Amino acid sequence: MKLIYEKSVAGRRGYRPPAPDVETKAEIPAGLLRDRPAAMPEVSELDVVRHFTALAQRNFGVDTGFYPLGSCTMKYNPKMAEAAARTPGLEDLHPMLVHLAQGEALVQGALEILYETDRWLQEICGMAAFTTQPLAGAHGELAGVLMMAAYHAARGNDRRTILIPDSAHGTNPASATLAGYRVTTIPSDASGATDPAAVAAALGKGDVAGIMLTCPDTLGLFHPEVQDICRMVHEADAVAYCDGANLNAILGRCRPGDLGFDILHVNLHKTFATPHGGGGPGAGPVGVSLRLVDFLPVPRIGRRTDGTFFLDSGRPKSIGQVAPFFGNFGVIVRAYAYLRMLGREGLRRVSENAVLNANYIREKLKGYYDLPFDRRCMHECIFSASRQAKRGVRAIDIAKALIDRGFHPPTIYFPLVVKEALMIEPTETESKETLDAFIEAMMEIAQLAETNPEAVTSCPKMTPVGRLDETRAARRPDLACLG
Amino acid sequence: MPFISNTDAERRRMLAEIGMKAEELFADIPAAVRDPAMDVPAGLSEQEVRGQISKLAARNASNLLSFLGGGYYDHFSPAAVDAVLSRSEFYTAYTPYQPEISQGTLQAIYEYQSAVCRLTEMEAANASMYDGGTALYEAGMMAARITGRRQLLVDDSVSPIYRAMLRTHLEHHEVELVETASREGLPDRTRIAESLSDETAAVLVQNPNFFGRLDDFSGLARMAHERGALLVISCYPVSLGLAKTPGAMGADIACGEGQSLGLPLSFGGPYLGFMATRMDHVRKMPGRLVGRTVDAEGRQGFVLTIQAREQHIRREKAVSNICSNESLCALGALVYLSLLGKEGLREVAHLCADKAAYARERLGRIRGVKEGFPGRPVFNEFVIRLPADAEKVAGALLEKGIAAGIPLGRWYPDLKDSLLVAVTEKRTREEIDRLAAAMEDVL
Fold this sequence. Notes:
The structure holds two protein chains of two kinds. Chain A is globular, with a radius of gyration of 25 Å. Chain A is built from 16 helices and twelve strands. By secondary structure, chain A is of the alpha/beta class. Chain B has three domains: 6-36, no CATH class; 65-75 and 342-442, Aspartate Aminotransferase, domain 1 (Alpha-Beta Complex); 79-335, Type I PLP-dependent aspartate aminotransferase-like (Major domain) (Aspartate Aminotransferase, domain 2, 3-Layer(aba) Sandwich). Chain B has 14 helices and 15 strands. The longest helix of chain B is centred in the last third of the chain and has 38 residues, at 327-364. Chain B is globular.
């Protein structure tokens, strides 16, 4: 398909500006002006709309079909949340209003949404307080680790190391490094769990600022000894961080704070049904236990006894501000609306169905694919395609064969501790028929891998492009069509 | 529960088929912490929730006549922008890790990267950062990686919000932040020359800067390069409809806040950080990159590329921790720029500048009001000095339904009498006259 720039026709217009209503001309010296107009395409509105509609049709979203992308919680995103974010009075609200003298009074409704979201997240997660500032999950991790650093600095602890399991998301070690820490990797034991003995040994070295665990972990399992690990961490005056990417599995069933975690980030775009937007925007609120409340970013939002909301910036131990204002407000409004609709019982329904759907797939497919950890799972199940790989059919081939059958593939090759990993997260919103259709497709592909591997490895055939030359893309980067 | 398809009967059947009992689902959670009490209200219907949100929205003053800017601007966004953003194939998709079914997102990102390059006259742009502040932080970190140096000089004419974010993000990192004081509302070249050392990784400046002033950083680029440092320019993309570009000034990294490109103000986010650089530095750039390539049959296609920089591959050695970015906002910016086109973007920029010039002249005629930086070129935002405390004057104007501008005293203690006034193409002459009349009234 042609680029929008290749559709440009000299003189064509897609926008008409309002007529000038002042005679004044800005006097800007030539030296401050650009030499030639920016080479934006010259296209009509219809050209633009057709172009992007055609691009949309070359995309696959949750609304298109089943999207069991493990670790990403691709549940259905209710339309009412989209409408909520576009409400006049929210969508058009200028954030700089808060920097006017009476600013708080001008944005009471918006502050209430932030305050209430914060409060509900506290209840759901068992944390003492939240900040909604972090702009994505990884940004929440960084904010969390910065609070960890501030905690140790305030106590005069000289700690340089953060412990991270080998099964963790790549963002965990990357965030720890950005906050100035060294990373020590903790190996998983034979059952796939983080080994408490390995944690104890690492803590014994005395340099540990904290640990970053994912709960339930990235293998889709609830760590039986997670409370013991948090206890050991606390005994070493270290901080227990929970990557909350998998919170969907335990909504209303248990709370990371009750398990002993001190810091938790929540991906609103996963658990709380805000759409992923083709890679963002997300939102990564961070909750903390009592001993870390003083370090939360400012401004904090408070509620007076008369029910009005105020901004509190006078917190000397705060790490400062991590976002320009209060975080990705539009995303938070969607999560607020979703939470408001779910309520207490709805939260428990979410986890129940998410976990049941994952176990259903696990049980039905375990005769067809290797199950590295053959036990009850939480919200996602992880298979290995090593059996198929012996026939020359790898995880990536299975992914491409699923595409031809109308499904988005699961996450592949993650977590790194599983060979040929296929990480399947069905989410709670999918029906039994959808799961059955997916299971059937997976069975058929497993069968083909035995009888006719070529029929799998040659997929996809039904897409506008086939497998693309990624080596060429990386070696000879073509990153822009310059004007 | 309208968002869960299965019925109780189906759930029972599924459990029976796999030989599980409902209570087994959560049996791995220790009993002592299982099924906690939560003080969360009961669920509501869509109608009730929408009603409640409308009520909350009505408690916000979004109907003021606004001259607020400070890096976040109320530009007009054509309806086609939101129409495209409302295509669920775009907004309900994840990161395009499976290129064959993500060509829509991937080609759009490639076109967006191209738009950023064309706008800034740089060679390579990434798929987006979170916002202008985090983009500037990431640009500073990138400069440190490229130069192997550990100090960033940031001028105080850069947004105080960005500088606060830089301080937070760098607090525990070995990269050190040094702030230089501006002079007459521009970076002070002498002071920067004195502050530059063999440890300086980059000089961070902004155009137009927080005071709205336009500048040419070509000399600063040469000065930085002579000392082996880089120049990072944060810029306001709509201003690039007319302003000299970071590329033309010799910037090594251009970045900025993309909200002005058709995205709603939305009380502070989601916004769009953009970043562009020269091809030499691409492998040190943070964030996702989309490249153009071909399939086995030679058909053009797009993929995520040069991923060996990123956290999912490199973990603690990655150039950044960023994963989710602001992809949908980048799509919105691309649609906006495509609609405006070459002429439209230039016209909108000139409209903003001309209306701001009118407002500046009109407000300058009010008795007691002085220009902050008399006669100096600005884009669409300018500083005025008032005969009284700017917070008080702004407060009095609020009571007349006008958000007249941003009082600067909060960030610049010697500018307590100064107000930062922004004008976009949406403000009419009549509205500017209304602001002037109201200001005359309260002074």
